[in-house]
């Protein structure tokens, strides 16, 4: 049975705050949405710890995946209406690619774990590799449904997600510098964080898209809409994704899981009965797909609640700091002030905080726009504009705005430490000189050398 044979007699509509209506008109797609693997995404927040900074950011990866599907569906509709293929290899849209594009869009984030990026860092998992495994493993409901299209269809869908699919148009719909994934999460994250940074003219960008042999390009008359999208993305990273409080809570989460892992690995030294069963496969570095799919944000939060009663002072304190939103403080540092960090860690250690768990450095940088460089380890597909004569020109060649940010990283480097180090009065007077010395190194939220910065930074 083909994908087209499973068209629904009546389309299913999901109401959505970003796109208004998300339309599903195929049984394959509806069955994929109803699998346990996909429904699990309801229980994983899209922005992880950002909800502790922006209280509205409680939205899930489930809603985001539906949104990416909807944008991809609109791309397919416009391409088929305005640029249908007329002969083989003419660079126009072949609507036979619609099933693989829609399924890849819907399933692209299927492998994300709880508090995804922190979890990946601690347990060395890879959400893209796990997404591929969920799609291609014969044991999953997702794979069984995809095989209804054809025996090779699951592999086709997975190859779109890992960028090896033969049609670059389909790959760039899901993953490029202007793709359905980014266009949905910018608007969705902006809405739920209560900010305006990620808003751009989605309809105009989609209207200007055109399929070409090498992928997707944009009519040059839509250049300003694409510029707006790029600047919106830059602002979202600087104002939302790189927010120092969200990063601080990620540091606490990272160190909390690290401490739990350490205690589990040293039972004779700490708590012999420490058996967080659902995390033990990851502590043992030997987990199955079923182990992974059993985890969500709620599972981790339940363990964190248990750990607030731990006999280990570091574990229970970090658990309380995370659950009760008590972020670490941070200060900016640069190449000049970086050599001062060991001194600050020593002061923190002397004040009674284990510097392995109560300090961290975190570098967050993002390229607003990157021109194609085949020598890069992961070269970006550049944004091409179609000129009136039909020739292509790269965006930064004609946009002074994009040229001004092209290839230039934006972000900062921060040193994280306990907020207590900045308190003016501590209960333990013996530590008072330590706090005062530490504070002399922090001026205007920067790490400074007090001997060189008597007048402030």
Which sequence of strands runs across the widest sheet? 3-4-7-8
Structural class: alpha+beta
Uncertain runs are none
The overall pLDDT, averaged over residues, is 92
Proportion in helices: 40-55%
Radius of gyration: 25 Å
Count of helical regions: 22
Spatial gap, N to C terminus = 69 Å
The main sheet comes to:
4 strands, mixed
How many strands appear in the DSSP assignment?
A: 11
* Shape annotation: globular
- Beta-sheet strand percentage? 5-15%
Pfam family, one: HD
Domain HD/PDEase: 57-195
InterPro entries: dGTPase-like, HD/PDEase_dom, HD_assoc_2, HD_domain
Protein name: HD domain-containing protein
Structure description:
InterPro entries: dGTPase-like, HD/PDEase_dom, HD_assoc_2, HD_domain. This is HD domain-containing protein. Residues 57-195 form the HD/PDEase domain. With 457 residues, this protein is an alpha+beta fold. A hairpin with a 5-residue loop joins strand 7 (384-386) and strand 8 (392-394). It contains 22 helices and 11 strands. Helix 6 (127-136) runs antiparallel to helix 8 (153-161), helix 13 packs antiparallel against helix 17 (313-323) and helix 16 (297-307) packs across helix 17 (313-323). The strands form 4 sheets. The protein has a 4-stranded mixed sheet.
